[in-house]
């Protein structure tokens, strides 16, 4: 018998919290299908949680066909969500902390120290990539990560660099005169390359420098010996809060999946609960 599973997945990051309602048709027949996103909203870590909006999204949903899950890198933010959970008509969320339960081989020196978002991205990438095809995942948030999934589906490590917001804040905090450039400024219009005053020079460096770093890391990983035996080039995925800024300039290289982390979290919750 086929039915739809609704999931409220919550990713609590260092600077933002993301809420996504997804649905999956059970039993899963297409192994390359990620949970489908119905609604999404994000908020700064210190803003009020949009409980009314979440209740509206989940109204009239039978409890037995609904699941909630929360994970992330910010314990304070997770506590904020769980403490006020009674404001939603759902059972308490599944809190995902232990990555040892993940359906993923983690081939790095210290598996327990890998950020959970990076592993959730890899789990989702394993749904999308072809058999014997690797993957490269670019996730732009507070930090930008560029990670590799091997052709046999193992998380193989990657690179970490400052994201847009962290780079802007560092320039402001560690210099005497440079202004703080909000990331929202970069969304209003594409920064000029040749800045004629300090603000535009910073915008140029933030945007084009980030884009150049991401392009070069993709290029270096594509040449890595890990992919030498693969019959096709790695699938390149772009996700995260800053991904919409980069996507128009990388559309020849990447597949744009802005909510990959939360889709990976939904998959993990299904597997831990024995649903999928």
Topology (SSEs and partners):
Layout: E1 3-12, E2 16-26, E3 36-44, H1 51-58, E4 66-72, H2 75-83, E5 94-95, H3 116-128, E6 135-140, E7 143-149, E8 155-162, H4 164-173, H5 183-188, H6 198-222, E9 235-239, H7 243-250, E10 255-256, H8 260-272
Parallel strand pairs: 1-4, 4-5, 6-9, 9-10
Antiparallel strand pairs: 1-2, 2-3, 6-7, 7-8
Helix pairs in contact: 3-8
Summarize the structure.
The protein is of the alpha/beta class and 276 residues long.
Give the second-level CATH assignment, the architecture.
2-Layer Sandwich
Q: Largest sheet at a glance?
A: 5 strands, mixed
Give the number of helices. 8
Q: List the secondary-structure elements in sequence, H or E.
A: EEEHEHEHEEEHHHEHEH
- Give the termini distance in whole angstroms: 14 Å
Question: Uncertain runs with pLDDT below 50, 5 residues or more?
Answer: none
Indicate how many domains the architecture comprises.
1
Strand content: 15-25%
- Full CATH superfamily name: ATPase, nucleotide binding domain
Name the structural class.
Answer: alpha/beta
- What is the CATH T-level topology? Nucleotidyltransferase, domain 5
Q: If strands are numbered along the chain, what order do they take across the biggest sheet?
A: 3-2-1-4-5
Helicity range: 25-40%
Shape: globular
Report the radius of gyration as a whole number of Å. 19 Å
How confident is the prediction overall: mean pLDDT?
A: 92
Number of strands: 10
CATH class type: Alpha Beta
EC number: 2.7.1.33
Subcellular location: Cytoplasm
Enzyme class: transferase
InterPro entries: ATPase_NBD, Type_III_PanK
